[in-house]
Design brief:
heterodimer; A: 64 residues; mainly alpha; flat; B: 473 residues; alpha/beta; two-stranded antiparallel ribbon; 13 strands; 37% helix
Chain lengths: 64, 473
């Protein structure tokens, strides 16, 4: 598990220390199980995600 | 000097009655800051001269009959992840480019200014509205005015402590996993997370694009309603913000006909404060005495929505921070690194699946709100933790232990509005808090419930006497 976390952080170019990787690994095992459980919810099988793309959208300066 | 009002609502009435001036309110707020801020670390930047100028202008305008509404002349704090022209935005971080937002007002800040609010300064936050305090970094450590050995909660730390201590009558916070409601709870003030999309979030340094909410902290539900009226409404710069301005309904204190669903599951874990059960039961009894009918309910997809909040925040924040994290890892707070690195530990498919389950849970909570008008549950199971309890045995921030006692992220994921109000004290005399959640865009209903609760209690009027010894930095 430690090597998985190390690899994932390395891919993202996050230079965590060994102590941090150790702590992240402990949390990762629990988090991975929680994320995997999201695929086990039958009600979500045919549901669109809460994401939407607007074809006509433009960037508007918030201070204008 | 006559005792000054401690709520925004009372101060607004006193300004119009001529029994107090904005300059008096502002000078009193500055005096409190001079005395207490070095201990509790409310401010990152103070605008004393600017505030006194704006206060004098407000007094002159009110004297001429130019009334901009209840925020006119009111001392007000702004969390330092929101742009304000009078000073740089730091996000309490060594990383953020100080040129970001320079000389500009976030739409919500512009609306506060237009309403005549007297902004006294920029308040402390956890770095980028994320994580936990880091004593190794050159920023104030936010300390709780009720006990300076304890944390304020975060991330809207300074806004919570500033309202509690009397450095301003209301302030802005942001909430992505609980950052309005947690400091409101720990500091014994009221905090409102509006519906996602009710208030424009542009001009705010982002944490989770699909989770960030901007809202008020103040003494009372009524105060929060006045602030929301100013903040709400669409802005072209925020595609998530909808055309839903807010007008507070009449607050009578009567809850006849209101159906309240009470949640206990997950909110009373082992290790909770011994006073929590009795305090919560007493709070529910007050709501019932005011005319509400009470039924027990459970929240659908509880654990799933907590997970979705964590990984959505992690992924959305990592997209923003990945380049800087790679180049300047050590300049980030330790807890920020841990929370943002979560985004590197899930896949793109995981993120999308989280958004699919989020949609399912939105539908389920909507159906629950077909049967009740308000959901009531504790904000946290404990009072503010002491600083020594924020770190685990491995020396790393103990985020998991902390959030096992905090019950806020569920609602960020769903986007529903939630009001946190003080409901009593722990066995050690620290504030405890009640969450009142409503259906999407149901702020009027939860504010009605919160106001009725506060008409029957005085927890929101309890004021700490913060110590002035020591230093926040």
């Amino acid at each position: 598990m430690n090597e998985i976390v190390k690899t994932l952080l390395s891919i993202a170019k996050l230079p965590a220390s060994e102590a941090e990787i150790e702590a992240y690994t402990t949390a990762y095992a629990v988090q991975r199980a929680s994320v995997d459980a999201l695929y086990e919810i039958p009600e979500a099988r045919y549901v669109d995600p809460a994401l939407r793309f607007q074809a006509a959208a433009r960037i508007t300066d918030w201070a204008s | 000097m006559t005792e000054l009002p401690i709520t925004l609502t009372d101060a607004a009435a006193a300004l119009r009655a001529g029994t107090v001036t904005s300059v008096e309110l502002t000078q009193a707020a500055i005096d409190v800051a001079d005395r207490v801020d070095p201990t509790i670390g409310t401010y990152l930047a103070r605008f004393d001269s600017y505030a006194l100028e704006r206060a004098a202008a407000a007094d002159a305008e009110l004297a001429r009959g130019e009334d901009r509404g209840p925020l006119h002349g009111i001392p007000f704090g702004v969390k330092d992840i929101l742009a304000m022209a009078e000073g740089p935005t730091t996000a309490q971080s060594l990383i953020l480019d100080r040129a970001w937002g320079e000389g500009k007002d976030a739409p919500v800040v512009a609306r506060l200014k237009a309403a005549g609010a007297v902004i006294t300064g920029k308040t402390t936050t956890m770095e980028y509205a994320c994580g936990m305090p880091d004593p190794e970094k050159p920023f104030p450590l936010p300390r709780n005015p009720w006990n300076s050995d304890t944390w304020t909660g975060g991330s809207s730390s300074g806004t919570g402590s500033g309202v509690a201590a009397g450095m301003f009558l209301a302030g802005l916070g942001t909430d992505t996993g609980g950052s309005i409601r947690i400091p409101a709870a720990f500091c014994g003030v009221s905090g409102l997370m509006p519906t996602f999309g009710r208030v424009p979030k542009s001009g705010c340094v982002p944490l989770g694009y699909s989770l960030d909410h901007i809202g008020p902290l103040a003494r009372s539900a009524r105060d929060c309603a006045s602030v929301l009226e100013v903040l709400a409404g669409p802005h072209a710069s925020d595609p998530d913000c909808v055309d839903a301005p807010f007008t507070a309904s009449e607050l009578t204190g009567d809850l006849s006909g209101l159906r309240i669903g009470v949640v206990r599951e997950h909110h009373f874990p082992d290790g909770r404060d011994p006073a929590l059960d009795g305090v919560f039961d007493a709070a529910v009894a007050v709501l019932a005495e005011r005319g509400a009918s009470v039924v027990e309910v459970t929240l659908p997809y509880w654990q799933e929505m907590v997970t979705v909040d964590i990984i959505t925040m992690g992924c959305e924040a990592l997209a923003y921070h990945q380049t800087d994290l790679g180049a300047r890892w050590d300049d980030y707070f330790v807890a920020t690194r841990a929370m943002v690195a979560t985004g590197a530990q899930v896949s793109g498919a995981d993120y999308v699946q989280a958004q699919r389950v989020r949609r399912v849970a939105q539908d389920a909570i909507g159906r629950l709100f077909d049967t009740v008008d308000v959901i009531a549950c504790p904000t946290t199971s404990v009072g503010a933790p002491t600083y020594d309890k924020l770190t685990g045995p491995d020396g790393q921030p103990d985020i998991g232990a902390l959030f096992s006692m905090i019950h806020t992220p569920y609602w960020d994921t769903l986007g529903n509005p939630v009001l946190a109000v003080p409901m009593g004290f722990t066995a050690d005399g620290m504030p405890l808090s009640l969450q009142l959640a409503g259906p999407a865009f149901g702020e009027a209903t939860i504010l009605r419930a919160g106001d009725a609760f506060q008409q029957g209690t005085d927890w929101h009027l309890r004021v700490p006497q913060p110590a002035t010894e020591g230093a926040a930095a």
